[in-house]
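re: ur question from yesterday

yeah so i grabbed the chain u mentioned. its 347 aa long if i counted rite. heres the sequnce exactly as i have it in my notes:
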Amino acid sequence: MKDRRDFLKTALTGAVLLGTQSKLSLADVPTKSTNTGHQDQYTHRIEPGKSRVVIARDSALHGSSGHLDEKRVLDLLDRAIASYTGRDKPTDAWKHILPQGGPDKVIGIKTNGLGGKGISSHAMLAFAIAERLRWAGIKPGNIVIWDRFARDLEACGFTINTDPSRVRCFGSDVSGYEEDGVAFGAAINVKLSKILTRQCDMVIGLPILKDHSGAGVTFAMKNMYGVVQRPNELHGGGCNPFVADLNCIPAVREKVRFTIGDAMTSVYDGGPGFHPERLWQPNALIIGEDRVALDTTAWQLLERKRAEAGLPTLEAAGRPPRYIATAADPNHKLGFNKPEHINLVEI
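ran it thru and got these structure tokens back, copy pasting raw so excuse formatting
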């Protein structure tokens, strides 16, 4: 516990193609024997031809004061990763997810602070991830928490820090963008952050689950709007096909290999900005590799909550997230969007 507190204190101050996107393929996740007479809490059968998505919940994640409990956040993260990988020990689980090469690899954690304070990726979760990366052997200075701007990171509760001896935290307004644009489909002349292209060997997406006034849902794939210089140019047509096209650009497709979706707090209407009257606490993490399956799952959760609140479906509201089906189509092949192809595990 002391080591964890010291680490956090220091840090705070300063799919279809899964086999090619990551060394962790669903077929490689072990299924433990249950011959001992009881079912291990982290044991779930992996079904061939399906993308695995884990939703881990803790109804007591927010204490009586309404604030997140640090220990519960870390425990929830451990449970989610253990369930996804089939490994009990957090260190073993993380090593199974990370790329080969050990401590010299640079791992980015791409947050989302655009919604402002109150509806941004939680710093507590980001630092819990950073801690587990360190335990898995990644050097602190090789962990980069990042977003487009310093103001977005500060909205999440981070302090900007470029000290290479500690977990770093800075925006693309520091690193800059590539001079040459890249393209896929309708996403043309897209200039990518140098944090993505030149610094990170792997990126873990840390989106926050939100309703979106144009796209319907913003989660795993739309979080990538924060890696480009001018995301405003990618918002036409409800962000379709732009979200899918952006995620097909090689640096995005190949480096963003895992998502730890922050559904601890969400906004189910009026997003992507902060609207306290529409705030919701699912108290959950949604994790996986298949960005399409993740967004499909997030969409279903939002629709369920909207129905409970007496709100129309996103389709009826005129903003269904059509980019999700586009991302799954034969031209993109970013993952699965059909429920029968998603192995959803809820713990």
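noticed a couple things. Confidence is low (pLDDT under 50) at residues 1-46. also Residues 291-308 form the longest helix (18 residues).
anyway ttyl
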